[in-house]
Amino acid sequence: MTITDLASLVEQARAGRVRAVARLISLVEDDGPELRSLSAELAPLTGRARVLGLTGPPGVGKSTSTSMLVSAFRARDLRVGVLAIDPSSPFSGGALLGDRIRMHDHTVDAGVFIRSMATRGALGGLATATPQAVRVLDAAGFDVVLVETVGVGQSEMDVVALADTTVVLLAPGMGDGIQAAKAGILEVADVFVVNKADRDGVDQTVRDLRHALSLGRRELGPSWRQPIVRTVATTGEGADELLAALDGHHEWLVAQGELEARRVRRASREIEAIAVASLRARLGGVRGGEVLSGLAKQVAAGETDPYTAADQLTKGF
Ligand code: GDP
To answer: Which ligand 1 atom lies nearest to the CA of residue 148?
Structure first.
């Protein structure tokens, strides 16, 4: 694909052509040679979208809540892009979409773009692909980009690194919810949602969460108190409150200069992930492989040490 083709695709994406957006995201997923030119093309067009991360254990209501939020933002006439990420199953793109019946409400709406992300074995995996996909949506003029991830270990951290505002979902009756929360989710949440508020035990879940929060320390400073919003995602109850909490956090970010700080941190992670992936790719290349195996023989024979060898290996890059 030539630079002119890329520029024209970006142009079409900005004009609201969904297929152009989808093709650009496929380019990102495929991690092909066009990605550099594309990235350069997108850069001056980015920085406008609000990036929201949504994470939580499986079954808590993430896709239903995403759908609810999409409706709420659409009611404000904002364009919304959704990236659904399931890091535990890189090949499940299709299956994941099949589950998202409620999302079908939005499929005919040109102001909404929904995509499940698969890694397809890209070197940097989702750590590099997801931020680039966010850039595509941002450049394409989506006002809000919602990144939804299953909360399993590292993945919610990746979402946090990506988002301006991170929403963590819990639900009553998920005994391990708060347990999982204790394992690190507490610190990363900017806004908590206790979904399935139509179920028994919602008050207890909120109390448990408050208690856990009161025990935890937060590094971001005391001036933001993480709100806890109750929702019934299936009916849309609590959507206004959630939107208000998200707006509140956004205003706080701007007022504190924290929005800029988070975006700089995000960019620095992006650069690092790309650099590491590209280093790994070169090491895996023919020449890199030869140099590496030569050095490995020397280290195994005791002729040199692994640190010196690593320095020698990376010196050429
Ligand atoms: P995800 O795995 O976190 O994306 O969860 P889903 O959005 O797929 O929801 C899992 C199940 O919970 C589905 O059957 C939803 O219909 C249901 N669900 C989602 N939100 C609510 C809610 O607020 N109340 C009730 N009772 N069920 C809900």
So the answer is: 4
